[in-house]
Amino acid sequence: MGMRHLLVATAMGLVAPMLVAAAPAPSAGGVDLTGRDMAVKPGDDFEAYANGGWRARTEIPADRSSTGTFLDVFKKAEARTADIIQSSAKSNPASGTDARRIADDYAAFMDTAGIEKRGLAPVQPELARITALKDKHALATFLGATVRSDTDPINDTNFSTENLFGLFVTQSLDDPSRTVPYLMQGGLGLPDRDYYLSKTPEMAEIRTAYRAYVEKLLTLAGVSDAAARADRIVALEMKIATVHADIETSQDIHKSNNPWKRADFAAKAPGLDWDAFFTAAELPGQQDFFAWQPAAITGLSALVASEPLQDWQDWLTFHRINEVTFALPKALDDAHFDFYGKTLNGTPQQRTRDKRAIAEVNTDLGDAVGQIYARRYFPASSKADIQTMVKGILAAFDRRVAALDWMASATKAEARRKIETMRVGIGYPETWRSYAGLDIRADDPVGNFRRAQLAEYRHQVAKIGKPVDRAEWWMTPQTVNAVNLPLQNALNFPAAILEAPFYDPKADPAVNYGSIGATIGHEVSHSFDNTGADFDAEGRLRNWWTPSDFQHFEQAGAALAAQYDAYVALPGLNLKGKQELGENIADLAGLTAAYEAYHASLGGKPAPVIAGMTGDQRFFLAFAQSWREKIRDKALRTRVATDVHAPARFRAQTVRNLDAWYKAFGVTPGSSLYLAPDKRVRVW
After folding, report:
1. Is 195 domain-assigned?
2. How much is the pTM?
3. How many domains does the chain have?
């Protein structure tokens, strides 16, 4: 999903709650009127004012860690994808076609009787190969043969749970004409290094539960001496976590700009047989690499040398089983969910098998499904409407840059060139992936998963050394998300997110601009956040700022980080403003650009008053309601620890930095969210 994701999902109040009717929600041009909590003053907690009524009557589904607007839109995309899969199966498609692959992939996942009958047989050949590893050379070969590709090193700081490393393939940071591989850290079964190293009771409790889960899974898989092996596995992962780079380091693109030649790995990261690794990774002649987290690569390689081979065999055994529990007998699948779903995220119930099968088909055959999805569900009229909105928001952003009084003319020229040359993909890609060589079988879910992984890896590796495709998409049309690609100076807006309530062709323009418009603005703004601002119009990592301009930009970013540091997600748990800074800059700048584009779209005419609400009020409420979410405490704790996005409730409070919000809702000094004009953060 590229170098930047958009999305992923809390605050204060007074007085008694109002009663909420159970009837269908009245709407003001698309604003959910009953979703509000009229007992809360907008200036004290705008998110609760916009969404408190909804939250009071909403229950999180038992099979979810959270619910909200994104889940509503996801369910629509999921139902459509289910229809695509079912129609593929009913058509009795010919062998070798994408329709046949879709039908067989789904059938294999759903064949629980066959899965139970096969038991552990699908993984036994691989486990036997692990047991047969005779030395560290063989270990390096196995690690190389199982390395897989990543598409988001900034957000996925622990890329792989089954390999020490992951590979990200894209253009060179210094030379936009070259496609190169980036090697990244991996190897942890928990989401991030903080889960191993943090001294908090909550993290210690999770570590204890993880150790118990490792033993349980090995026992269920019939692996001998499970308790001792579990001890060794968790101890090894503690050492891996110690050498990992943290999230903030992984987000710093300058710390990732480390070109290494093939020979540099042996010199800078001794311990792993790199020739054996890269040969097995199907990169035998590749000479140019980038080390995304160089200290971690050095540390992980050293651990290969220092830790006993048996420990690595135990670690591999666990992770190769752990990654495919969905395709193994129910006892293993349930154990996996008990830990990763219940313990880690507080989700009480596993999703139904059919819905999980849909997700797997989307993972394995995303473009095959997406091609049908786009044709069926994304009309040309919607694409044209979004293109008009994008054009207006880009123009608004350009006007803002041109009017900045603190930015030098040379810096402005570079920024405006980025805007002018930005490539925006809407709905679906111009070209589609081919799955012609992918073998999908109706009786082999483990093999389907592994072969799809390998096909994706080979697809990525095949790009190395070739010209950069600036029109490449990093998301499928059925994905409810959006992405900014700073290395391509491009944006992708999949069809599935261009749906109500984010976007509704029948809704009031104020609502569409406040919701999908702010989303579009968010992605545009990523080109100018604390990471995107380091790239020029060609996607080259280059400093195009004057020193004084960059100092001003960094000061504004520091002020925004401090604002988010002050928010409390749970008692004793504050947000991490620096970790979330890029997303928060994009929220603020994107909302500002969307607001200005909305007013420009009015053509000088006043916005109508609907249900007693002005256009500005509807705009800001639509923004806050697009971020409505109810989340379980454990999932919230995980999100704060590992995510580069602030939880949704706090993203809605971005409005406090815009002057127009104060006027729209009569917010005055003394309100909890009030900021004096000189304290309101203005990044762009």
Report:
1. no
2. 0.89
3. 1
